[in-house]
Every structure is written in structure tokens, then in C-alpha cells.
Write a structure and sequence with these properties.
94 residues, 4 strands, alpha/beta, 41% helix
Length: 94
């Protein structure tokens, strides 16, 4: 399943790994904010989320790091890249 499909079909959870301030400035509807620096300490919470996870940030760098780490922890996740791209895919589903 592609990232676009997961988003359009609401098949998983969108996790925005930007800072709280960045998230407050704009984010994908229904997404949750777990800043990349909090990923390790919030791992148990993350494991409880509906998988697969689609991770996003400003450009795809931080979400790429988070995707790599979470994949190593056995969590099904994908790098959605920029939150603006993820937001676009989500609006196409409506």
C-alpha cells in the first residue's frame, strides 16, 4: 500500500514529528504531534497507535529519521515527507 493510499483511505495514523510550535502553526487534520526528540521516550504510546504510521515534518528529513528508528523497533511506518504533501493527499480523500 502506498503512502498516498494509506492517507486517502485513513488506513493508519498520521504522526507529525515537528516541534509543538511548528505543529501549532499548521498541521494535517486528525494528525498527532510527537516531536522527533520525544520518539524514544514515547515508544510505548506510539506502539498503541493504529498502524501503519505515516510520519511527516517540514521537509521529510526528521520524519525520515523517525521512520528509520521506528522501523527498527518493528513498527510499520512510512515517511510521508512534508506535512503539506500529506495534507494534500488527505484533502483528495474528502
Amino acid at each position: 500500500m502506498s503512502v498516498e493510499q494509506i492517507i486517502k483511505e485513513n488506513a493508519g495514523t498520521i504522526v507529525d514529528v515537528r516541534t509543538v510550535a511548528e505543529f501549532r502553526g499548521g498541521h494535517v487534520a486528525e494528525s498527532i504531534n510527537i516531536p522527533v526528540q520525544e520518539i524514544t521516550e514515547r515508544l510505548e504510546e506510539i506502539k498503541q497507535l493504529k498502524q501503519p504510521l505515516v510520519l511527516c515534518c517540514a521537509s521529510g528529513g526528521r520524519s525520515g529519521q523517525a521512520t528509520q528508528f521506528l522501523s527498527q523497533m518493528g513498527i510499520e511506518c512510512y515517511n510521508g515527507g512534508s506535512w503539506l504533501d500529506v495534507n494534500y493527499f488527505q484533502t483528495q480523500a474528502l
